[in-house]
Amino acid sequence: MARKAKVEKSNKDQKYSTRGVLRCRRCGRANGVLQKFELCRICFRELAHKGVLPGVKKSSW
């Protein structure tokens, strides 16, 4: 779980654009975040398996 202070700091408006940190909207994780869904890889996988994310399905070949 992410520290509340780091989550709040990332939500604040940054003076420079490179200081911004992309965090998961669901759990606050900073690494492994998919920009399109704004979710980390772990939350993305959980929600995709449940069928909550529209247009996402498990690939098989």
Automatic annotation (TrEMBL):
<comment type="similarity">
    <text>Belongs to the universal ribosomal protein uS14 family. Zinc-binding uS14 subfamily.</text>
</comment>
<keyword id="KW-0479">Metal-binding</keyword>
<keyword id="KW-0862">Zinc</keyword>
<dbReference type="InterPro" id="IPR001209">
    <property type="entry name" value="Ribosomal_uS14"/>
</dbReference>
<keyword id="KW-0687">Ribonucleoprotein</keyword>
<dbReference type="GO" id="GO:0003735">
    <property type="term" value="F:structural constituent of ribosome"/>
</dbReference>
<dbReference type="InterPro" id="IPR023053">
    <property type="entry name" value="Ribosomal_uS14_bact"/>
</dbReference>
<dbReference type="GO" id="GO:0006412">
    <property type="term" value="P:translation"/>
</dbReference>
<dbReference type="GO" id="GO:0046872">
    <property type="term" value="F:metal ion binding"/>
</dbReference>
<keyword id="KW-0689">Ribosomal protein</keyword>
<dbReference type="InterPro" id="IPR018271">
    <property type="entry name" value="Ribosomal_uS14_CS"/>
</dbReference>
<dbReference type="GO" id="GO:0015935">
    <property type="term" value="C:small ribosomal subunit"/>
</dbReference>
<dbReference type="InterPro" id="IPR043140">
    <property type="entry name" value="Ribosomal_uS14_sf"/>
</dbReference>
<dbReference type="Pfam" id="PF00253">
    <property type="entry name" value="Ribosomal_S14"/>
</dbReference>
<comment type="subunit">
    <text>Part of the 30S ribosomal subunit. Contacts proteins S3 and S10.</text>
</comment>
<keyword id="KW-0699">rRNA-binding</keyword>
<keyword id="KW-0694">RNA-binding</keyword>
<dbReference type="GO" id="GO:0019843">
    <property type="term" value="F:rRNA binding"/>
</dbReference>
<protein>
    <recommendedName>
        <fullName>Small ribosomal subunit protein uS14</fullName>
    </recommendedName>
</protein>
